[in-house]
């Protein structure tokens, strides 16, 4: 054998050898003469170690192979030809294909779950695919928190959204590098970000609509494409910056409470292709998104993650998607769970069908059964190989399988995380999201100078509300109360009076000061760096005020306590001074057990972000109750906020009396992410499982605003919500209404600046604000008739695209470069927009298309928009180039969206309202 190692005899590597420049390889081998590290792989014996763990050396004197330890292999490897999958000059597909061929079936299945196991014999590291970046890096410690996506959609500014997600991708890369350097590869630490959510917000009751970019397919597409491109980085880079994920494919928008069993049993092909698919198609074709997440529910009888129509025929075959399809978490288990879809008898059959339909990655553990699936003949191993190649290719494309030093993105410094520069971007985005809905007689902006303002409402001083959901933890949040205070002059005065809760007719009065230990106020705390409480504590402390613990930003619960894997116990004697029902109020991420007098009375657990929880217990005045709160770390950032007290009935008359000297009341109300969101346990009037059962402002807030009005107060409402609110009575009772969404860490500053005129609002509604629930079709009906501005026949409270300014704009008559075009032609529309007011401002110029003779199609549908700055008194001419994409329409004959001959109307203006639009006819021949 001439003293060098026998080459691997697999056909795959033989093919690789022939493809390489043999002369260079031969020269290197001859220089090593008698010794060389080999890479023999016996496919019949998977226990034979491979490159990266052990090597084989051939001794020409004894004609035997000797096994070498990894250390020696590493010493010699630098001078030796690498295996194909290690060769960085090969394409990621070639590397992934080679590596897949070296894996056993069991190893392949372990790589097909979100918490992918390492393959130590090949040197493949563990990788956790689950990471979140909905509006900032989420659940991984300190990070910049930008406005919720629905608020960013209100900016109608794809450039601003790109700036946000370029900052997000910088923080995500910097965090990943830090985690890898620390040897950590846990959930929320990887490079595959499961965002954006581009489902159509078809019904305002859907709790997860707050994660979307609105109700319009064109707007959702444009925003989603901007997100994906900013996250993934330029196509020309050797490695992708991150991988984005379009979710949840495809006909999915509530309800939350039955999403694991719900079936969109029938849907017109037109609704599917005209409304539910366009944003996903744009992300696949225009943005080259690298992942698509299939949804929980069924579509036409089949679970979305096992839908031949959605995943095979449309996504793979028609659109040519060659990236990864990941199942929403637990979605494969829904195939066979009796309380879910129950379309399959067991995990083996469910997993086989999901992979055959194209679902590569299981967020869960059902794919453990794939080995059984192969043994039972339900699937061929080559079908599994197809998915494994896609998964490994993605890891190679990200550089995750190579050294950090090979990947230029790893050089992004950690100081970008939650930096001042990114805070300024968060403020920019919050400013652009501010949407002025109502302004009677130009009541806003407010003027300072001897003004007394009362700030009221449940959201006025709530920083957590501003963070939205799927969020990180900012180093600092400016609440709306703080933002208003910062805008007031030295001779102005401010009164803060909450007045009411979000929904309930009580307010929490803390009784924490009635808890003692060893004669001192508060709780005694003990900590262990292990879940084993029989060990001696590593730290002991006293907690004299309501708990506010969080490990975000590497902040430990107490000195000497680890950031992960720790446990804590807090104990005190509680002697209430009044009888009644005490409330134990928690905001937590981890596992909690509450003990009273030695008995466990309640447990809580969350490892999927922080959640609210409470426990109610009757107590008697003067009686002592021994309390113990046990906390155990689960994953991600640990959090424990805790207080206890009594909820007392609100007294509106007393609250109004306390603000009697106020010239203006700013009421900051609405709802919060603790009420609307993903599959929540909330059970309050108007809310069910994260969704809403009605869309009006909660009754207690409505009553307080009406009482303030009767007391003669001028009320400005700031509405915080991630979904449309029925605010018809508030339009009558309030001088102005500002929609602030969930505005992120800088939201308070943006609200204050808007109210006092430091910025001129230009946000526009990405969703229709209906008058009330009576204007809505049945929530579970996915047909589009009667839904959103595109199909609604009634007059809404505020139309899609609506938003006021502190100046006024006048639209000239639009003109077209051609009034008649052929199907392969483009046309240019021009419209002059004049700022007729006295202030500079931004206007969102919107272009809609309609086809008058199509009685079953949309009334109009957005096909272009541009946010433009127009100085006071000046005119700007805005032009739109309209081609095949902008002018496509539903063709019933071919069952496709295409440029269809016929007569159309092109409309331009400042909202989707008929009164706001000017139109011009267009004929396509």
UniProtKB/TrEMBL annotation:
GO molecular function, one term: alpha-L-arabinofuranosidase activity
One Pfam family linked to the record: Fn3-like
PROSITE patterns listed in its UniProt record: PA14 (PS51820)
Domain PA14, residue spans: 518-660
InterPro entries per UniProt: BXL, Fn3-like, GH, Glyco_hydro_3_C, Glyco_hydro_3_C_sf, Glyco_hydro_3_N, Glyco_hydro_3_N_sf, Ig-like_fold
Keywords, comma-separated and alphabetical: Hydrolase, Signal
One biological process term in Gene Ontology: xylan catabolic process
Transmembrane segments: none
Family label: Belongs to the glycosyl hydrolase 3 family.
Full protein name: Beta-glucosidase
Organism: Breznakibacter xylanolyticus
């Amino acid at each position: 054998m001439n003293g060098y190692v026998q080459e691997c005899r697999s056909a795959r590597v033989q093919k690789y050898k022939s493809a390489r420049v043999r002369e260079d390889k031969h020269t290197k081998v001859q220089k090593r003469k008698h010794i060389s590290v080999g890479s023999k792989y016996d496919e019949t014996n998977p226990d034979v170690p491979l490159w990266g763990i052990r090597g084989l050396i051939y001794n020409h004197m004894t004609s035997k192979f000797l096994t070498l330890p990894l250390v020696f292999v590493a010493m010699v490897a630098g001078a030796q030809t690498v295996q194909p999958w290690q060769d960085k000059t090969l394409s990621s597909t070639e590397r992934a294909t080679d590596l897949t061929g070296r894996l056993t079936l069991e190893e392949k299945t372990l790589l097909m779950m979100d918490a992918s196991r390492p393959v130590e014999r090949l040197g493949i590291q563990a990788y956790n695919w689950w990471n979140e970046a909905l509006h900032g890096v989420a659940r991984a410690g300190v990070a910049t928190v930008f406005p919720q996506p629905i608020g960013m959609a209100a900016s109608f500014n794809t450039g601003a959204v790109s700036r946000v997600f370029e900052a997000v991708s910088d923080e995500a890369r910097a965090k990943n590098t830090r985690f890898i350097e620390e040897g950590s590869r846990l959930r929320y630490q990887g490079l595959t970000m499961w965002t954006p959510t581009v489902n159509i917000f078809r019904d305002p009751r859907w709790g997860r609509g707050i994660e979307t970019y609105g109700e319009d397919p064109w707007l959702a597409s444009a925003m989603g494409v901007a997100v994906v491109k900013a996250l993934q980085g330029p196509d020309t880079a050797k490695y992708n910056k991150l991988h984005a994920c379009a979710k949840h494919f495809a006909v999915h928008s509530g309800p939350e409470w039955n999403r694991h069993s719900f079936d969109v049993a029938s849907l017109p092909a037109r609704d599917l292709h005209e409304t539910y698919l366009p944003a996903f198609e744009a992300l696949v074709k225009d943005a080259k998104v690298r992942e698509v997440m299939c949804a929980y529910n069924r579509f036409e009888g089949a679970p979305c993650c096992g839908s031949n129509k959605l995943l095979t025929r449309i996504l793979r075959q028609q659109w040519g998607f060659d990236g990864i399809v990941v199942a929403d978490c637990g979605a494969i288990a829904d195939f066979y769970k009796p309380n879910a879809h129950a379309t399959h008898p067991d995990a083996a059959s469910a997993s086989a069908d999901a992979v055959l339909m194209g679902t590569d990655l299981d967020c869960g553990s059902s794919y453990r059964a794939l080995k059984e699936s192969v043994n039972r003949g339900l699937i061929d191993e080559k079908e599994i190989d197809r998915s494994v190649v896609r998964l490994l290719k993605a890891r190679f494309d990200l550089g995750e399988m190579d050294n950090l030093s090979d990947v230029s993105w790893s050089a992004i410094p950690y100081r970008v995380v939650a930096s001042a520069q990114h805070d300024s971007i968060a403020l920019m985005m919050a400013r652009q999201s501010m949407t002025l809905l109502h302004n009677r007689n130009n009541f806003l902006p407010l003027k300072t100078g001897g003004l007394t303002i009362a700030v009221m409402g449940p959201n006025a001083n709530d920083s957590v509300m501003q963070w939205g959901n799927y969020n990180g933890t900012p180093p600092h949040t400016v609440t709306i109360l703080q933002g208003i205070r910062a805008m007031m002059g030295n001779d102005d005065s401010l009164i803060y009076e909450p007045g009411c809760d979000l929904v309930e007719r009580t307010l929490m009065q803390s009784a924490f000061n009635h808890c003692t230990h060893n004669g001192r106020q508060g709780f005694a705390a003990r900590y262990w760096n292990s879940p084993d409480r029989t060990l001696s504590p590593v730290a002991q402390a006293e907690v004299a005020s309501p708990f506010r613990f969080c490990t975000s930003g590497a902040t430990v619960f107490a000195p000497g306590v680890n950031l992960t894997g720790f446990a804590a116990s807090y104990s005190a004697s509680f002697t209430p001074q009044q009888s009644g029902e005490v409330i134990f109020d928690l905001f937590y991420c981890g596992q909690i057990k509450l003990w009273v007098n030695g008995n466990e009375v309640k447990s809580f657990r969350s490892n999927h972000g922080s959640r609210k929880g409470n426990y109610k217990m009757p107590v008697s005045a003067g009686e002592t109750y021994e309390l113990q709160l046990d906390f155990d770390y689960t994953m991600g950032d640990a959090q424990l906020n805790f207080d206890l007290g009594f909820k007392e009935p609100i007294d509106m008359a007393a609250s109004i009396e306390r603000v009697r000297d106020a010239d203006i009341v700013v009421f900051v109300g609405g709802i919060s992410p603790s009420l609307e969101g993903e599959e929540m346990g909330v059970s309050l009037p108007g809310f069910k499982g994260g969704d809403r059962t009605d869309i009006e402002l909660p009754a207690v807030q409505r009553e307080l605003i009406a009482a303030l009005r009767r007391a003669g107060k001028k009320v400005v409402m700031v509405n915080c919500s991630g979904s449309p609110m029925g605010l018809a009575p508030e339009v009558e009772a309030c001088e102005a209404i500002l929609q602030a969404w969930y505005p992120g860490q800088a939201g308070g500053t943006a609200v204050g600046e808007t109210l006092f005129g430091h910025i001129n609002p230009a946000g526009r509604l990405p969703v229709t604000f209906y008058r009330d629930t009576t204007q809505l079709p049945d929530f579970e009906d996915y047909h589009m008739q009667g839904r959103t501005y595109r199909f609604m026949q009634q007059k809404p409270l505020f139309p899609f695209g609506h938003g006021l300014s502190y100046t006024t704009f006048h639209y000239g008559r639009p003109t077209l470069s051609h009034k008649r075009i052929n199907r392969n032609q483009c046309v240019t529309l021009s419209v002059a927009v004049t700022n007729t007011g006295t202030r500079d401002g931004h206007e969102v110029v919107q272009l809609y298309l309609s086809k008058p003779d199509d009685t079953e199609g949309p009334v109009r549908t957005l096909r272009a928009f541009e946010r433009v700055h127009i100085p006071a008194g000046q005119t700007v001419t805005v032009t739109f180039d309209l081609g095949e994409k902008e002018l496509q329409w539903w063709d019933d004959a071919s069952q496709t969206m295409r440029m269809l001959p016929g007569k159309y109307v092109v409309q331009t203006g400042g909202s989707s309202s008929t009164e706001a639009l000017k139109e011009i006819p267009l004929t396509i021949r």
